[in-house]
Amino acid sequence: MLNITIDGRSLEAREGQTILEVAREAGIHIPTLCYLAERSAIGSCRVCVVDVEGQAAPMPACTTPVVDGMQVQTDSERVQKHRRMAVDLLLSNHGLDSTNFCFSCGKNGACELQAVAREVGVTETTFPVEQRRKPVLDSNPFLRFDPNLCIACQRCVGACNNAAGNHVLQTAKRGVRTTIRAPFGPSWDRTICESCGNCAQACPTGALVEKRRAGYREWEVEKVLTTCPHCATGCQYYL
Ligand code: FES
């Protein structure tokens, strides 16, 4: 076992665990966005950064493995500043304008970006960049993809590949141009997509949603472990 300290608490950790895993086991909250347990941990959003003694810059808790004697601070002033900057940047091209705003989004109230922004104290972006105007892919009868709301966290790709084992969703391009190739356009029925909905469940924003979501709000339904209603494959995956 390894011994580490998080926020002054002495904790035992197993070899190979990340800071986030140890913190969660100990009930210490670290906000996350791109991380999806056992499905995807690419360390892209930088919302989970923490201070690690001896490191010049904050480190992402979701991808940083613990080492013996590590000293971690999860909520220092520097960490809070970095988290606000990360969320500010994500919001800057999240499609928030007069034609697209939270109230009209199917994920309003259940959006993790909205929740994290509130948690870290970001109410608007300080980077007024041009908004994306990509076409919404709407041909799939069950699923809808709005690339303008996508934060390229790739959780949907992890869910499609690692949970459903379908490998239908892929990433394309690199860096700030990273996009998700979701086959929900006119030729969606010529792909092997089973419309299982794992991708929509994994999406933290309103980018990938089940269409029936338009008929209810998150707090009006009860979540149960179930077999997918679309294809009956039996993924039995839910968040
Ligand atoms: Fe760790 Fe996104 S949750 S970098």
UniProtKB/TrEMBL annotation:
Residues 141-170, 184-213 form the 4Fe-4S ferredoxin-type domain. Residues 1-78 form the 2Fe-2S ferredoxin-type domain. This is Formate dehydrogenase subunit alpha. Belongs to the complex I 75 kDa subunit family. In the C-terminal section; belongs to the prokaryotic molybdopterin-containing oxidoreductase family. It is found in: Membrane. It comes from the Bacteria. Residues 78-121 form the 4Fe-4S His(Cys)3-ligated-type domain.
